[in-house]
Specification:
Rossmann fold; 8-stranded mixed beta sheet; 12 helices; about 40% helix; about 15% strand
């Protein structure tokens, strides 16, 4: 799968398009988290295409081949995402799937431009307002989030993350999904992406913008989290259901860590297709 360069007023972004040029099927836009990139959706995208959808998975700003320059705050990433969606589907609303950081930036995106979306599925990333509120209730969660504090150390953190062939990232993967062994090919691909992109993927955590207001979200949304997530406990999403003025469902999957779409791909794609098929105009 090669990259398509999508030109927007905010720069040219790397997008992995699945479904062929000129495809008029409903579009599913997928947004990755950390430490990951758009290739994380490749397996899921193949199944969605066979189910009658087109899939566009973008690399966030800070990850090659998307722009390296420019601000990396959450508000800026929201603007990037909306610009890419406008370029890919200027008239028709899309489905949105986000994981980790991609899920967190989805909430303000859905609140800001609900008319651009049909339905959303968010994995392992609660609304930033509720993350800040609920994390204080759990010493375990505060300890699990220590990597964010470490990333504030600037170049020292950047050097540590990249040292010894990104051994720090290997430890995060093991900690965040303890029962899952990431395939060697995926690990090597991701390390190549990080190697070419640093310090962007880490600097993103220093760019701010996480004080997101708890605004109403009228887009039907499915939220999925895992009981064994070593990065973000399920309790972080408690209370966020009150934001959704239409349909909302929260599923907590037993024995699943931080990467549901990689750990249980068949279950994840079944949940996504079932959820988005409930909208009018689905295949």
């Amino acid at each position: 799968m090669s990259w398509t360069q999508v030109r927007t007023p905010r720069g040219t972004f790397g997008v992995r398009l699945h479904g062929g040029p000129g495809n008029v099927s409903p579009l599913v836009v997928c947004v990755h988290g950390f430490p990951d990139d758009a290739s994380t959706w490749d397996g899921l995208a193949e199944v969605l295409v066979s189910a009658g959808y087109q899939v566009a998975a973008m690399n966030l700003r800070g990850y090659v081949p998307s722009p390296q320059a420019g601000p990396l705050g959450l508000d800026d990433l929201v603007a990037d995402l909306l610009a890419v969606i406008d370029a890919l589907s200027p008239r028709a609303p899309v489905h949105l799937v986000g994981h980790d950081y991609g899920a967190q930036l989805a909430y303000p995106t859905l609140a800001r431009a609900p008319h651009r979306f049909r339905r959303a599925v968010l994995l392992s990333g609660a609304h930033p307002a509720f993350v800040q509120r609920n994390a204080r209730r759990s010493l375990r969660q505060l300890w699990m989030s220590r990597y964010i504090v470490f990333f504030q150390l600037g170049r020292r953190a950047d050097r540590r993350v990249a040292a010894d062939d990104f051994a720090y990232v290997d430890r995060l993967w093991r900690r965040w999904s303890p029962a899952f062994h990431f395939p060697a090919e995926h690990r090597e691909h991701m390390k190549n992406t990080l190697r070419a992109s640093m310090p962007g993927p880490v600097a993103m955590y220093r760019a701010g913008g996480f004080s997101v207001p708890a605004e109403p979200i009228p887009v039907p949304t499915l939220y999925i989290t895992g009981t064994d997530d070593g990065c973000a406990l399920p309790l972080l999403a408690e209370g966020q259901n009150a934001l959704f003025t239409h349909e909302y469902r929260n599923e907590t999957w037993q024995g699943v860590g931080h990467f549901p779409h990689l750990e249980q791909p068949q279950r994840t794609v079944a949940a996504i297709t079932s959820w988005i098929a409930a909208s009018s105009g689905s295949p």
